TrEMBL record:
Annotated organism of origin: Noccaea caerulescens (Alpine penny-cress)
Name of this protein: Protein MEI2-like 4
Lineage summary: Eukaryota, Viridiplantae, Streptophyta, Embryophyta, Tracheophyta
Origin: domain of life: Eukaryota
UniProt GO molecular function: RNA binding
Keywords: RNA-binding
InterPro entries: Nucleotide-bd_a/b_plait_sf, RBD_domain_sf
Disulfide bond is among the record's keywords: no
Amino acid sequence: YYDIRAAQNAMRALHGRLLRGRTLDIHYPMPKENPKKENTSEGALLVNNLDSSISNEEFQRIVSSYGEVREVRRTMHENSQIYIEFFDVR
């Protein structure tokens, strides 16, 4: 199961935060089924404006304090964008 609460907590804490001189811009990804539905998430976030020298593993260590991380990966669009997925271990 995805953990929406962990994604919300991470977004509240990290959106607008400076990391290696860059301001993080964090949003929920657009849902595949209904792209017009905003602010919905299945426990996933898109992090934009990330310094490309930050590895996926390093960023996973940062966000893991907000919940269990299922996946952290660079998107195909940009090296400065990371997709994060949290999951509920209850």
